[in-house]
Amino acid sequence: MKLTVLFLALAGLPALAGLSPSQLTCEYLDNPLGIDNPQPRMSWRLESKQRAQKQTAYQILAATSEALLKADAGDLWDTGKVASDQSVQVAYAGKALSSGQRCCWKVRVWDQDGKISAYSPPASWEMGLLAPQDWQGQWIANTADTNSLPAPFLRHAFTLEGKIKQARVYLCGLGYYELHLNGNKIGDHLLDPGYTRYDRRDLYVTYDVTDALRRGKNAVGVILGNGWYNVQTKAVWNFHQAPWRAAPKLLLQLRVEYTDGRSETIATDSGWKTSTGPITFDSIYGGENYDARAELPGWDKPDYDDSAWSQAQVVAAPGGKLAAQMMPPIKADPNVQPLKPVRLTEPRPGVFLFDLGQSFAGFAELRVRGPAGAKVVLKYGERVSKDGMLDRTGIQHHVARVDASQQFQTDSYILRGQGWETWHSRFDYHGFQYVEVTGFPGQPTLDTLRGDFIHSAVPVAGEFACSNPLLNRIWTAARWSYLSNLQGIPTDCPHREKNGWTGDAHLAAEQGLFNYAPAAVYTKWINDLGDEQRPTGELPGIVPTSGWGYTWGNGPAWDSAFLLIPYYLYEYCGDTKVLCDHYDGLKRYVDYLTRKAKGGIVNLGLNDWAPFKTTTPADITSTAYYYRDAQIVALTAGLRGNAADAQKYADLAASIKTAFNDKFYDPNTGLYGNGSQTSLSCALYQGLVEPANQARVLTNLVAAVENANNHIDTGILGSKYLLNALLANGRAEVAYRIASQKDLPSWGWWIEQGATTLWEQWNGADSRNHIMFGDISAWFYKALAGINPDPAAPAFKHFILKPNLVGGLTSARAAYDSVHGRIVSDWKCANGRFDWTVTIPANTSATVYVPIPDAAAIKEGGQPAAAAAGVKLLRAETGRTLFEVGSGTYHFTAPAL
Questions:
Q1: What is the predicted pLDDT for the residue at 276?
Q2: Exposure string (b/e) for 359-371, b if CB count within 10 Å is 16 or more?
Q3: CA of 643: how far to CAs of 584, 633, 640, 649, in Å?
Q4: CB neighbour class for 693 (10 Å; exposed up to 12, middle 13-18, buried from 19)
Q5: Averaged pLDDT for residues 514-526
Q6: 225 Cα distance to chain centroid
Q7: Mean pLDDT, to the nearest integer, of 815-828?
Q8: pLDDT at residue 7 in the model
Q9: For helices 716-728 and 694-707, what crossing angle results, to 10°?
Q10: β partners of residue 124
Q11: Are 128 and 206 in contact (CB under 8 A)?
């Protein structure tokens, strides 16, 4: 009887959908605190065990509490049923949100058959402080003297009366800070807050500190570091003269809510106490000095005696807009164990050299025991000279040429003399593989040092492997370089400069977006570019900047990061907001180039930087970026509904294309410019070649490669154009030969020389941890595994799967966690058989290019592919058979060619 009743009850329920929503995010983040976008964007992924499943509608509920949400009451926002397949970048449109507002939300969807899913697991976000008047604290400091070297310690003791419901800290500590409550460091962030143009934008971080507080006595403490705010090291970029420069300062607000409905705010003011402690010097370029004898035990606890401390000074605000840090913080890499040295030598008496076996960004953790006052010095670098000593010549010259006596990439530790002591620096990071240690009391061992790899904690999004071990090593080296150079901004190198070079950033952006999920970091950095743009449109070569770099000569090949990276966010993530938010600035930049152009040609800025042998004039590459930038402005105008501007800039792009071909194309030879690999591939890659000339230009490009003995002969711009132009024009085998070389010039030559990261120059000169040649990593995904975005359907809503079986390669596998879900392409050729497993996420589709020309020979799941569920035969094309495929996992097989 009970079973009958249950059956009847279940029979009365609507059938559940073949889709289930999960992995909810807000502004690319999981359950974030401190959101200051008044209309945060929500995304979810869909899962299904059925093929070709799509979302046809959704309903979002947003509530002020988990209890209301559980009761299906969306008191903030109930969308009702929205007929839409959109599952990413859905902007909140409910009730206006206030500072500190917590929003709990969930979503359900309808599948292609109109069946409704269960609601997703709940997620949340919390608003930050949205208006200047929401900040009740004052900016305070230990001193106003920028030359005062010891790091400031600030503290405040307070009493809480009542049972605590929740507590939040909102904190901006410049240049860097470390937060403590009741004797404990809060969180695992490093080098917070993110680096900005401080007189225009200052980031604050929000912490949930509910569990760190208690009824009764409490204490909050903050240590401040100089960071980029008070640069101590003189170098050619003049950060020591930055217009924002001031001594470290703090703004903190602690809001406590009690269970009885009361609330209380503790904020920075002149009542706070301050002193200095063991950090006697810290510099983003120089390093950090620490005297453990000067430690302040218990300084961050309520009962600490701070009677000898001074009152904090109330100081001027830094001048920038306070904005929430809506990006992953810098952390120690959770996927990499601290690196243990692989070799320890003593090239001179008392000089010990540790080789960690891997080039990376971070710091060394020292473990030592010895007498009080013993001073251990750690110098960091990436090369060793012939005599076995650390060689930093190639990375310190921009500092040394200003003042050779300055400390550079060096930490020191003075022992307190009480048993084993473990230490690492707080407010710097270094680029290194080797650590030279002097002053060590006794004989060190391999257990004396560990290396901590730190970077912006972006989630891993991609993985790749193929049957060519060399390419796998190049891919791995590129990943280490990318993360080493993602430190709240994309940088060029983690040692010599640490600067946000715009050219390096856009050249590496697609690699970053395939391998990781860095969209929130890029969103922040594009804000930095907007902050740096002059009213007349110019941009500097490095961002942020002290003012250096506007007249350095960078030009559109570098500046176009301001347009290209937002475009990549649109293409890979479906993000229209970054483009649209910066539309006026993007347009201003293109208008600036128009004023500089002569007859549609821009001869401005750097050319193809760091070529091996052949140089390419800047007018070719700069004009091509001018064309691409005009196209992006036209696209953005269309996204904003501005038809007039869309037409204006589309017409401008067309006129630039005409001027480019009139100026550079020789109809007698089929060459562009000087006929270099960069000139020819630039024209092809940027879409500037007229269709009638395409085959001829491609033939000339292949000939240019063959004339270089199948080697690359470009700089950083051409290295992106060349492989992609060959791929797009059906010559992936030529690009593969280039990528597989092991002698100069090639990525493989670096690996053969022992490289574990990518280098700055083909010949190995200068930096050995640079990311600007890194787009080859994205090419592996596109060309070998065959995962390609479809520009007509951003965010991989629809995409292309088109692997290339080239150069004796017998297998390739890649997985990519797109914003819609995981894409997999996994193929191998063995025993005369081609096997290819592909996964298309729910609510997406793909055009699949099976590299077999005979459709009848292709099977999927053991049956003819054309008859398989979710598969539609399209046509045969140049040795391939094309299918349109809905979501799901498919296994294509065929006799190998």
A1: 98
A2: bbbbbbbbebebe
A3: 15, 12, 8, 10
A4: middle
A5: 98
A6: 24
A7: 98
A8: 37
A9: 120
A10: 104
A11: yes
Count H helices and E strands in the chain, helices first.
Answer: 18, 48
Q: Predicted confidence band at 161 (pLDDT cuts at 50, 70, 90)?
A: very high
pLDDT grade for 554, boundaries at 50, 70 and 90 = confident
Burial of 194 by CB count in 10 Å (0-12 exposed, 13-18 middle, 19+ buried)? buried
Whether residue 169 contacts residue 180, with contact meaning beta carbons closer than 8 Å, is answered with no
The per-residue pLDDT for range 328-338, each reduced to its tens digit, is: 999 999 999 99
Which structure tokens are listed for 632? 């992006």
Q: Which two tokens stand for residue 413?
A: 């530790």
| CA quadruple 775, 776, 779, 781: dihedral, nearest 10 | -100
Instruction: List % helix, strand, coil for the chain (3-state, nearest 5).
Output: 25, 30, 45
pLDDT(5) > 90: no
pLDDT confidence of residue 71? 98
Residue 799 pLDDT exceeds 80: yes
Whether residue 674 contacts residue 704, with contact meaning beta carbons closer than 8 Å, is answered with no
Q: Are 590 and 627 in contact (CB under 8 A)?
A: no
Q: One-letter amino acid identity for 30?
A: D
Write the DSSP assignment of 173-198 as a string of letters.
EESEEEEEETTEE-SS-BSBSPP--T
Inform me whether the pLDDT recorded for 10 exceeds 90: no
Q: For residue 49, which amino acid is it?
A: K
How many other CB atoms are found less than 10 A from the CB of residue 303?
Answer: 8
Which of 363, 221, 366 is CA-nearest to residue 297? Answer: 221
Type of residue at 63 = A
Q: What is the pLDDT of residue 12?
A: 40
Pairing of strands 410-414, 287-291: parallel
- Residue the block writes with tokens 């590496």: 508
User: 609 CB contacts (<8 Å, ≥6 apart)?
Assistant: 503, 557, 715, 716, 717, 772
Structure-block tokens of residue 431: 């680029």
Give the strand pairing for 421-423 and 351-368: antiparallel
- The span from the CA of 187 to the CA of 160, in Å, is 22
Q: What number is the average pLDDT over the span 159-163?
A: 97
3-state secondary structure 63-75: ECCHHHHHCCCCC
Q: How do residues 396-440 score in pLDDT, each as one tens digit?
A: 999 999 999 999 999 999 999 999 999 999 999 999 999 999 999
Distance, CA of 745 to CA of 823 (rounded, Å): 33
Instruction: For 614-659, give the DSSP string.
Output: ----HHHHHHHHHHHHHHHHHHHHHHTT-HHHHHHHHHHHHHHHHH
Q: Is the per-residue pLDDT at 810 higher than 60?
A: yes
Which tokens hold the place of 348?
């001179």
pLDDT digits (tens, 9 = 90+) for 856-871: 999 999 999 999 999 9
Instruction: Quote the CA–CA distance of 302 and 310 in Å, as a whole number.
Output: 17
Burial of 655: CB neighbours in 10 Å, binned 0-12, 13-18, 19+: middle
Mean pLDDT of the chain: 96
Residue 59 tokens, joined: 């309903």
Phi, psi of 123 (to 5 degrees): -135, 175
- CA triplet 830, 835, 839: central angle to 5 degrees? 145
Please tell me the distance from the alpha carbon of residue 294 to that of residue 433, in angstroms, as a whole number.
30
Q: What distance in Å separates the CA atoms of residue 757 and residue 759, rounded to the nearest whole number?
A: 7
Distance between CA atoms of 694 and 662, rounded to whole angstroms? Answer: 15
Give the residue-averaged pLDDT of 487-496.
98
How many residues belong to the chain? 897
Q: Is 285 left (phi over 0), alpha (psi -120 to 50) or beta?
A: alpha
| pLDDT(9) > 70 | no
**Across 7-34, average pLDDT:** 78
Reading the block at residue 694, the tokens are: 């395409």
CB 117 within 8 A of CB 108: yes
What DSSP string describes 573-605?
H---HHHHHTHHHHHHHHHHHHHH-BTTB---S
